[in-house]
Amino acid sequence: MKTILIFVSTLDGKVTKWGEPHVSAWSSHQDQDYYKNVLKESGLIVMGSNTFNADTFKPSPNRQLIILTRHHDKYKSLEVAGQLEFTNESPLEISARFKNKCHKQMLVVGGPHIATSFLKEELIDELWLTIEPKIFGTGGNFATDVNLDINLRLLYFEKVNEQGTLITKYAVLKK
Ligand SMILES: NC(=O)c1ccc[n+]([C@@H]2O[C@H](COP(=O)([O-])OP(=O)(O)OC[C@H]3O[C@@H](n4cnc5c(N)ncnc54)[C@H](OP(=O)(O)O)[C@@H]3O)[C@@H](O)[C@H]2O)c1
Q1: Helix or strand or coil: residue 166?
Q2: What are the structural domain ranges in the chain?
Q3: How far apart are CA 137 and CA 165, in angstroms?
């Protein structure tokens, strides 16, 4: 199973604008369509509770949504068996649980706290990054305040609109 981290970022590395939680307020239509398609094709999706709360993720029999939270009880009423699960497992435990479960890929959709936890544990195989030609100055980066030293290799890139939004895919080079 391949573990893929997906984000949309500005040229100055921001994945949120000035603290505004809704990415769709600034990302291009092309990225939003691409992201929707990637979500539709993913049977296993992992995210942090803040990302879950910032967006709308509906349960569906076609996919399993795993939300990492240390306050599992708070979300109990939202759980749908096999479709929407809240857990306090660590990224290592989640990866180990699904490793041999026949999923082609596990999509990690953020946010930065969860992304950093997965990156720190060297659990990410590919980074799918959309780069929007924008600069925000303040806002969050997808890797938060931690020393990392990760090398990647470009697999794919595509310019998807006139302004120059780039959809890219990188493989993480294993040490
Ligand atoms: N640009 C993009 O592509 C993109 C993608 C995704 C998200 N975002 C944005 O990012 C923001 C949310 O990101 P975020 O970093 O604040 O939150 P996050 O990574 O979505 O969630 C972090 C929360 O998850 C829980 N958690 C459980 N296990 C954890 C672990 N091992 N490590 C870290 N956290 C764990 C904690 O909350 P509990 O209190 O529940 O335990 C923690 O506060 C939103 O504004 C969202 O729109 C942007």
Answers
A1: strand
A2: 2-172
A3: 18
Pocket of ligand 1 (CB under 6 A): 7-8, 15-16, 21, 23, 47-51, 54, 68-71, 90-91, 109-114, 117
Residues 126 and 155 sit within 8 Å (Cβ to Cβ): yes
Which atom, in ligand 1's list, is nearest to the CA of 15? 1
Domain 2-172 has CATH 3.40.430.10: yes
Distance 166 CA to ligand 1 centre (A): 24
What is the pTM assigned to this prediction?
Answer: 0.97
- Calpha distance 25→22 (Å, rounded): 6
User: What six digits make up the tokens of 145?
Assistant: 């305040």
Look up tokens 């990690």; give the residue: 108
Q: Give tens-digit pLDDT for 45-69.
A: 999 999 999 988 999 999 999 999 9
